[in-house]
Each structure stands twice: as C-alpha cells, then as structure tokens.
Amino acid sequence: MKPVPRISTRGYYDLSNGNTLKNNRYYTYPKNDFKKLIGSQEIAIMIHGLRNDNAGAIAKVVLAKKQLRKLGYLHPVIGFSYDSNTAGAHLIKQAKHALSVGQKIAKKNGKNLGKFIEDFKELSPKTKIRLMGHSLGSQVILSTLEYLAKKKQNIGIVEGAYFFGASINEDIPSSKKYGKILESVVRSKIVNYYAPKDEVLSWANHEKYVKGPLGLNGATGRPVKKYHQKLVRPKNHRFASYAAVLSSFP
C-alpha cells in the first residue's frame, strides 16, 4: 500500500498533560508526495478526533479520500496527524481529564497547521485548501483559523472548512470574536454536519464536558453568512459513519 501523505506533529506534545515537548513547526511524510502537491488546483486536509494514534489518523484520510472520490472530488486528500491519543481517553473515570488534555493539544496545533498552510500557499499560491475536521479535529480547525487571522495577508487563505460531529461550542459561528475570524480567513464556506442523535456528543453535553457542542444541535444565535449547516443521521459518532452520510463535496 502506498504511504498516505500527511502533515504531522506527533511527539510534539505530552499525552498526559498537553505540555509542549518540541517547538518544531511540523513535518511532512512522504516528502516527495508534498512536492507533487505544488501546483494542484486544490487539496483537502483531513483532521481526526480524540483517541487516534498515527494508524487511526491514516485510516481517517483513507476513509475521507474514498468517500470524496465516490462524490466526484478528485483532488488530493492528505492528513493532519497530531497527539490526540491522550492518556486514559478510553477509561470513563479519566475521560474528562483526557478530553481536556486533548483540547489543550488541539488548540496548540492551530499554529502548527496554520504554519503549514502559510508555507504551502507560498509555494503554491493558487491551490485552494479545504479543511475537514471530525470531532476534536474541529478545535484544530478553529485554532488554525484563529492563528491565520492574525495576519492581513491570510484573508481568504482557506477555501472551505467542514465540520463533522464538531465538539466546539454551538455559539462560535455567531460569536463576535470567532464570527469575524471565520468570515475573514475562510473564502467560500463553512459547513457543519450536525447530528442530534450523536451519542458521544450527547454524553459530553450531558456530563458538561463540552457545553452545547456545535455538532449536536447546530449553531445558536445568528451565524455569519458563510456558515451553513446540514442535519445528518450517522449510525454513531465515528468518522466512518459521518463519511457514509456525506452526499456532496465541496
């Protein structure tokens, strides 16, 4: 099997507390595949959720690529692999701590993915970049947009952002702070696939681990114009289930 091209920050953050271990930007693998991406019309970057090791991250890219091909999207699909397999995430009594460490790491990765986007756009200014995030991957996207919004030249640098089972808060698309960020950094659209029957988000909401997840009931308030949402009925919270109900892209 051919290696799956991915941007990675594995080993940069401590899985037990979220502390930064290395101040590196990111690394790409395999290097030659990234050289081939220069000049592409567009690329999609798939960002996984919590409890994914490197193999899990790769599996999500393979899944995304397969489904997007089915829908007629023939551009390159690559992955962003980060330290999300936090210590104790599979144990109920440690779930809250594991999630908060995961959130801390996801937020920190915003600058890593943001730097990749800036670097890549410098080499390939005409390539459109779309970001797809599942569950905690939505936090990585939000933090990436927040990082990119700090510089004027990054207006419209991301073509589109797509959230699946998003664990960020439901008021983000309508909030003054984030609404501005979404509108300026994302050029065409932000799409949120939400599922009121998502068992993991329902549980996280009920336990107050994530208060009002965007992926559960959609956005509150008056979201920015570029924001759209689609009600979906995946079998469960897994990305495979969300990919299976995706009917069009982009």
UniProtKB/TrEMBL annotation:
User: Domain of life, per the record?
Assistant: Archaea
The source organism is Candidatus Nitrosopumilus sediminis
Q: Where in the cell is it found?
A: Membrane
- What is this protein called in UniProt? DUF726 domain-containing protein
The membrane-topology field of this record reads: Multi-pass membrane protein
Q: Could you name the Gene Ontology cellular component terms for this entry?
A: membrane
Upper classification of the organism: Archaea, Nitrososphaerota, Nitrososphaeria, Nitrosopumilales, Nitrosopumilaceae
Q: Which keywords has UniProt assigned to this entry?
A: Membrane, Transmembrane, Transmembrane helix
